[in-house]
Amino acid sequence: MGLYVILVGVQGAGKGVQASFIREHYGIPHVSTGDLFRAMRTRQDELALKIQEIMKEGRLVSDEVTNEVVRDRLEQDDATNGVILDGFPRNEAQAKWLEDYLASRGETLNAVLLLKLDLYTAFKRAFGRVKHPDSNDVYNIFFDNEDIEWEFEDHPENAYPPRLKAKEKASGKTLDRRSDDANAGAIIKRIDTYLENTAPLIQYFSGKGQLYEIDADQSIEAVSSDIQAVIDQTLA
Ligand code: AMP
Q: Does CATH place domain 3-118+197-235 in 3.40.50.300?
């Protein structure tokens, strides 16, 4: 039997880093439907072009196409021992398709791991994130600010929110901020969309006793350890 887990969490909950942990610890690949669709950007065939248009408009790809792309990914050699699903399923119809598909292979879903983070913390994780331009060092003005100097500077046209200026103390380097992190309204919109999309799914899996809530407001290691405990329990 393979290991099939679904990872759910608001942006900033640490889904990426925990997916890496699961991948390394259990030897199964991380399958993100968003990444699979983005990878089609280099393709020029009809399906890929259609998907690019849908993504540009911020719409969801149809269930039929999404399920096919997932099926194709799950049938690749590196997925024979299971996968970590991220961004899929996004609705109940996809969830049911996945269950049927796994059943047809004699497999079942092990767990849906919900990385739970209060929304204000999720907001601060995105809004306060700054990155060294050359290395991968990431800081946060709210949580990880000992080695940086930062201040808010009034926007020249008094637009809100004010601009964030941050630099690394040791190197004096100016730190970068992702433009989508600088836009408070956009962060809130992403959080709202997440809640809207996932609420019905969370209810669906919770009703089946497959939902496991993990407190994401802990150190990375503590979250990984909680995830490991849940997965090991489902494998026992
Ligand atoms: P993500 O990176 O998960 O936010 O996905 C980026 C985009 O890919 C979404 O806005 C959708 O257009 C598409 N997409 C990703 N996963 C799914 C899914 N499960 N069902 C439908 N569309 C999806």
A: yes
